[in-house]
Amino acid sequence: xxxxxxxxxxxxxxVWLENKATQRGIRGCEEVILGNxxxxxxxxxxxxxxxxxxxxxxVDRLNDAADDYSFVFxxxxxxxxxxxxxxxxxxxxxxxxxxxxxxxxxAAKKIVSADEVPDFWGLLEESRGGLKLVKLPKYLIxxxxxxxxxxxxxxxxxHSRKFTYNIEIKPEKYFGSNxxxxxxREFTDLPNSEQNVxxxxxxxxxxxxxxxxxxxxxxxxx
Length: 222
Description:
222 residues; single chain; alpha/beta
């Protein structure tokens, strides 16, 4: 079973992304099988707000912009954890194969540098109660058919896992007490989210929700 901090960072990645999504929000889940030896820690589909679309896609490539983008997150909580997966002799599996528009390593503080992540991967690092963007991932164009396949994988993953981790999540232990979560409050218990267990497809709060305003006031950086 993943550590408490690993679970929190994986869920923080989806919250980080929700702050950059359009008002339609995101559709995402955790522990998604994407290929041979490749189970990503979280994945999602969403549209991007214009400012973030320009940054992620690039102003000179906006002709390639899409209504929705796919995201993959790989969480690492220690140096050894990162090397176990991404070192040359690690269990990298299909992680060097393009699976989404954007790929991110989500890392605990100061365990990995930007030049150590694979070429087309970005890097998010824990910082000030949230995550900061250290390295932008490369924008990889995906066909509509590939996006639909990715969405099907999310749907299948969300509805095939009916388990949850029976631990007491205390994000404030790692990120400070100003998070929206409280003791024993699960990611899918956020106001206006669909009631799902860990691993289910989650709808994040929309921008008109008070909880969304509260979460946007939190310094998630990047």
